[in-house]
Structures are given as structure tokens and as C-alpha cells.
Write a structure and sequence with these properties.
The structure is a homodimer of 407-residue chains. The first copy, chain A, contains 11 helices and 16 strands. Chain A has helices at 54-65, 84-102, 123-136, 141-150, 203-216, 251-273, 292-304, 306-313, 319-327, 362-368, 396-403, and strands at residues 3-5, 15-20, 31-46, 69-78, 109-116, 159-167, 170-179, 188-189, 192-197, 232-237, 281-289, 339-344, 347-353, 356-357, 373-379, 385-392. In chain A, α1 (54-65) packs across α2, α5 (203-216) crosses α6 and α7 crosses α9. The longest helix of chain A has 23 residues, at 251-273. The first copy, chain A, is globular. The N and C termini of chain A lie far apart (48 Å). Chains A and B meet through α8, α9, β14 and α11 of A and α8, α9, β14 and α11 of B.
């Protein structure tokens, strides 16, 4: 069991954070820092895009080569992607400056960037930001909240959460913050997520828990089908909950995985629901497929279909588009077995039964689809695997946000 | 060499056609017929969607089981998709009624439908339409043009073309018409294409020519990434040009393939440029990849990216989005080798050289991207294969067209 608590990335014992305005963006907070009093084991997962931003390469190598991490420094406004050797050097400089300010090892600092592709980081402003952040780090809810705010780009709201869970009688905490709202803003990019926990766990199991869980969480989110060059999830565990270190896949491990899943699921729904221009969170549940991969493929196909997304925007129970998107997903199935239901706060209605219309009430269906979070439940009736994907509707505002000039 | 001529699907000797208003749609022409004085060898390619409309299954089986075809009857307004056994029976009834009206064999009639998914065909109106069409078939340009008009749904213009070509000293003709503008209109579907030629060719080579050519033409078009339940290309060859029958892959065969490619390429550009809500045809050329499959995958990834499509809508030289879409396509490459140029009637400009910005003029780039047809040329520098994909920009009108209710 997990219980929601306050505090975001500061909820776990020993973590402090902050967000400031360093001048990279005109008026908004644009740099954040997360710091742990003691070194943490760290795990990271990164974009599969062949075009990887410099901080993605830097963090991947740093986590691989070092046993611990103790701080993360993040900027928004400039993505440090497509920036060549110079971009790689700035990652190292950013980590070195942070290490100096915090009096820790440079190799214990991770970096992350989000913003415009193709521009170099303004290193003077970055240095100013690091100085400000290191002096003002704060372990309260407020510090975590300002950090969550500082990593936003086209996001309309900060995204943070924390949970409490028990491992062998010890209270532990896990908190996270993320940003992401499209591949993003004209020429901008990235989903970034930062998770902190005070659980004690080995680096190997921390990585395994994260890399398994992202398959059901971050990898199931799509705002616009564009996989960014900067996508990063970083997870720090500092062990200050003083539980017996989790070093095997026992009940303790699964208690941690449950809490990690709760954080990631919450943050993913935030990202999808706050997709660029979105008015509704779209949740697609595909049940009873032959394999888990089939369920994932089908759920993603429906969730990313432009025609399904515009139908949700129009509150239109357009099931032909759902059948169509299932059909071209690349999974074989019998269309004559499919049931489709719509679900939201306004109720639940079955639209399709055994592949044809149930003769449902269009009025009731529209009412259900007019909420700010709607779920499509698709029963394939050919097995017992299932998957959930998250997306959002496709609206005029998405076009306005992304067709504007980059000025 | 091929030469453009007038006459659309009536350009080839022996073909006549017509389009009428049978009352399926409120006020627009909604039924078309194509007829050849003599039986034709026929080839077809159909949607890969698992959810196949009834006429797709009917035509696939009819072409497979019979040596010849002599007429095609088409309706717009109702797609006859997700209609079960009843829908299959109506295909047979539609073919039988057409055969009776034209005094030919029922098995020599092919059928096609486009429109709303999930509704049954109004067979009384279909019968009326068949009677009207069979009495008014016309071998002039006008007949072909009215047929091209009658198969439109959300298309803003009819799409037809014809070419003349020589096979071993004989003049031959090939013409085509198609429709398609999205997976289409609220709950509508389909790309339909009909091609007629008077060349004499074996059924086997006709099929091979078509199935090879669609890989470079129809399969490279994407308006919104949604593969319809009804996609159909039908090709009839009646032999009335009296050339020596093409029965091997000699120069004659390749002369025919060149003409077929010219028809299909023209029609594909029409479909892409007339995509729902589109203001511009987007052509993406990917050159110098290791394999043809790599080139296809990369070209499609760029051409279907929502962020690239909205950038074209905004006349914005947003090359970071192009790099990003190349990067997540699933093909491995070195980002530091890539060159990207933009080309249109307004000129040509290199934007990216060896993976970084050329420091181009944003003003000039915007001017080039403001034309109604723009080409992105991407040089991967890792081989000698290439591919071209066609799409369009993503605009407010696409959202308006597809987010409206189905009324």
C-alpha cells in the first residue's frame, strides 16, 4: 500500500531542491537543482532517439561509470541538443561548477536540459544559476515546488507527487517531478522526470525497477508521437529511510516497485493531460489480448491516432476510427469479437459489442466524452494480457502552439 | 517517355464512365461506374488494415478467382465497413445489378465504397444509381470527369490524369482517378484509386507492375497516419491498343511501368496536397541511405511527424524537428553527416550541413516554405538508396474537419 504525501522531490529524507530565474528565459524560473545530503545510488533511462542531446549522453555515461550521484542540475530554455563537441563540454562544465558550489565530486553530479534545439547553453547565466541554487537549496515543500516550476517549458502546470510506503517495517518515501507537454514548443524538446527516494536499495535493483516500470508508464505516453532528443528519467535513492537494504526481489522490492509505479503513473497522466493544447486526458485500456506486446501495440495505436484524438476533442463517440486504428496497428485479431466502452466521471457506456454498434445513446456518449479525463476500454477477447496508454485530444491550440514562428 | 493527355479514366481506348447523384449524399454526385467494351485483365491492391471493408474482401476474392473484369461500380457516402454478413451480401447484390444493367457476367464486376463506417448501403438508391449510370456511360473527357467528381468525399477537387506511352511502336494510353483526403471525414474512410489502360499485358505482369509500384507511390502517402479500412487500387487493362501482349519483363514492360508510375505519382501528390485542411503538399526526399527500407522509414517518419507538419503550416524552417523525426524512426545513422535543404518554386536553401545549422537566412527559408508545394531534401551520406514520401501540413482546418460531430 502507498499513501500520497506532500513534498514532491523533497518528501524523501535528506533531499533538498530549489528553482530560480537565471536569465535563460525572459521572466520565468529556468534552473533547478536537487541535492541529497548523502550520496545516492542512481538509475537513469534515456531517449531512444538516435539524435541524443548532450546531457543525455553525459548522464548515461556518468551513471554507468560511477557508483553514486548526489545532485542534479537542470536548465529549461535551451535543450543542448544538436550542439556537437561544444555542447558535450558544457555538460562537463555545468557538472563541475555544481560540484564546486556544493563541495561534492564532479562525477556525482547529473545534468539535464530542455528547450530549443541547436543553440549552445549560455554558460555565464548557467554559472549564476548554479550559485543562486546552491545557496538557496530548501528541503521544504516550497523548495520542491519551485524546482518543479523551474523545469516547465510549454507545460501549463508543475507536475509533482510523493508517496509513503513501508519496507520491512520502515517508513520510506518517494517523490517525483517532471515536465513535458509535446516533443515541445516550436523547436523545443523534452520529457524530463526526476524521482527521489530515501529507500535503501542496490544500484542493480534500482535500475531494474526503473527500466521495467518505464515500459508501463513513460513509454505508454504520447502527446504527438514525436520522441524527443532529450527524454530522461533520473532516479536517486539515498538510503536514509534506514530500511534493510533491498538486495533481492523479495516483498521489500515489490513494495518499492509499487511506490515507484504510483509516482510514475501519476506523472505520466499529468504529462498526457497537460499535452500541448489538450483539453482532455485520454486513457486507452486494451484488455484480453494474446500477448502483452499486442496490448501495448493496440493501445498505442488508438491513443496516437490523429482521428481518434480529434474525435475526443469533438466529444464524438466515433468508434469507426477506433476500429480503424486497432486494425492498422500491425496485430492480427478478429474484428467480430471486439467490445468498446467509454468511461469518465459522467458514467460508462458500451458503444460496440462483438464488432458492431450497440445502438447506444449518442447524447449519453457525448456527455461521457465531455469530461477532462476519458477512458476507452477495448476488450479484444483473445487472451488475458492487457495494457494502458495515455494521450490527449488534438485541438486547435496544438496547431497554434506548434505552427507559430520560433520567435 | 510518357506524355500527358486529356481524358482521365476514359483516355484509354474502349473505356467509358460516368458519375451521378443517386441520393446517398444530399446534393452531390455519389455513384460512379467505369466500363470497358471488352473484358480486361485486372489487378488490385488493398488495405493492410485487419478491419477490412466488405468491398475490399469482395474485390480481392473476385480478382483472385476470375480471369477478367469489365466494370467497376463505386459509391461514396457509405463505406460498407464494419457491416458484417449483410455488408458482404450487398457487395454481391451491387455487382449482380451492375452486371444485369450492362449485360455482362456478375463475376466481371468489381465494387468499391467510401464514406461512413458502420452503416449499411441504401440498396434502393444504389439500384437507382446503377440504372442511371448504365444508361449514361460516356467515353468523353466529361464522363471521366463526372466519375472523378462522384467518388469525392472531403476532397476539395477531383483527381484525375492520363498519359500516352509507346509499347513496341504502338501508341498506348493509361488514365486514372482517385479520391482521398484523410482516413477521412468524421467516421469516413478511404483512399480509392482506379486506373484504366488499353495496353495488352498478362494478368500476372499487370499485378506485378502494380504491386511493385504502390510501394513507391500510394504506400508513401500519409495525410494523418491513419490507414483506412477501405483503401483500394484497381487497375484494368483491356488490350485495345493492340500492342504485342506484354508477357515478359522486357522494354515494353518497363515502358508500361513508367507510364503506370507517372499516373500513380501524380495521383499520390494530388491526395497529399489535398489532405484534409492542407495548405501545402509536403514532399520529403531522403537520399543516400544504406538500404531502400531505411530511406522509406526515414522519409515516412519526417513526413508524418505532427511537429514537422505544423512547422510547414507555420512556414517555419524548424530543422530540429526534422532531426528529431529522423532520430526516432528506428534507423541507425550518424547525425553529424546529415545535410538538409528546402526547395520550392521560390528557390532552394541549405539549412543544415553535417548535422549543424548553416546559418541560413530565416527570411529566405520562410519564403521557400510559403509555397503550396515544398520539398525537404535530406542527405544521409551513408549509401546510395533513396525514397520520396508525400504528405501535407497540419492545420487548424484539419482539427475543424475532424473534431466536428458526425451530423
Amino acid at each position: 500500500m502507498v499513501y500520497e504525501i506532500e513534498g514532491g522531490v523533497n518528501a524523501a529524507v535528506g533531499f533538498s531542491s530549489m528553482g530560480v530565474h537565471a536569465g535563460i528565459k525572459k521572466a520565468k524560473r529556468d534552473m533547478a537543482m536537487i541535492f541529497s545530503r548523502v550520496p545516492c545510488v542512481a538509475a537513469g533511462t534515456f531517449t531512444t532517439n538516435v539524435v541524443k542531446a548532450a546531457p543525455v549522453i553525459y548522464d548515461r555515461d556518468t551513471i554507468y561509470e560511477n557508483d553514486y550521484a548526489q545532485a542534479i542540475v537542470i536548465n529549461s530554455g535551451v535543450a543542448n541538443a544538436c550542439t556537437g563537441e561544444e555542447g558535450m563540454k558544457y555538460c562537463k562544465d555545468m557538472a563541475a561548477a555544481t560540484a564546486k558550489a556544493l563541495d561534492i565530486k564532479p562525477t556525482d553530479v547529473l545534468v539535464a536540459s530542455t528547450g530549443v534545439i541547436g543553440q549552445q547553453l549560455p554558460m555565464d547565466k548557467i554559472q549564476t544559476g548554479i550559485d543562486m541554487l546552491s545557496f538557496t537549496l530548501d528541503s521544504s515543500e516550497e523548495g520542491a515546488h519551485l524546482a518543479a516550476e523551474a523545469i516547465m517549458t510549454t507545460d501549463t502546470m508543475p507536475k509533482e507527487i510523493a508517496y509513503e510506503f513501508r519496507v520491512a517495517g520502515k517508513q520510506c518515501r518517494i517523490g517525483g517531478m517532471c515536465k513535458g507537454s509535446g516533443m515541445i514548443h516550436p523547436n523545443m524538446c523534452t520529457m524530463l522526470s526526476f524521482i527521489t527516494t530515501d529507500v535503501s536499495i542496490t544500484k542493480e535493483l534500482l535500475y531494474e525497477a526503473l527500466s521495467e516500470n518505464i515500459k508501463d508508464t513513460y513509454n505508454m505516453v504520447s502527446v504527438d508521437g514525436d520522441t524527443s532528443t532529450n527524454d530522461t528519467v533520473l532516479l536517486l535513492a539515498n538510503g536514509m529511510a534506514e530500511n534493510k537494504t533491498i538486495d533481492e526481489k523479495n516483498d521489500d522490492y515489490y513494495a518499492f516497485v509499487e511506490a515507484l509505479n504510483a509516482v510514475n503513473t501519476y506523472l505520466c497522466k499529468c504529462i498526457a493531460g497537460d499535452g500541448e493544447g489538450a483539453t482532455a486526458l485520454l486513457e486507452v485500456k486494451v484488455n484480453n489480448t494474446a500477448t502483452k506486446d499486442d496490448a501495448i501495440t493496440l493501445a498505442k495505436s488508438v491513443c496516437t491516432s490523429s482521428l481518434v484524438k480529434t474525435a475526443i476533442c469533438g466529444h464524438d463517440a466515433n468508434w469507426g476510427r477506433i476500429m480503424c486504428a486497432l486494425g492498422y496497428a500491425g496485430v492480427d485479431f478478429d474484428p467480430n469479437l471486439i467490445d468498446i466502452s467509454f468511461h469518465s466521471k459522467a458514467g460508462r457506456i458500451e458503444i460496440v459489442h462483438n464488432g458492431i454498434s450497440t445502438g447506444y445513446s449518442e447524447e449519453k456518449a457525448t456527455e461521457i466524452l465531455s469530461e477532462d479525463a476519458v477512458t476507452l476500454i477495448i476488450d479484444m477477447k483473445c487472451g488475458d494480457a492487457s495494457a494502458v496508454a495515455w494521450g490527449c485530444d488534438l485541438t486547435h491550440d496544438y496547431i497554434s502552439i506548434n505552427a507559430d514562428y520560433r520567435s
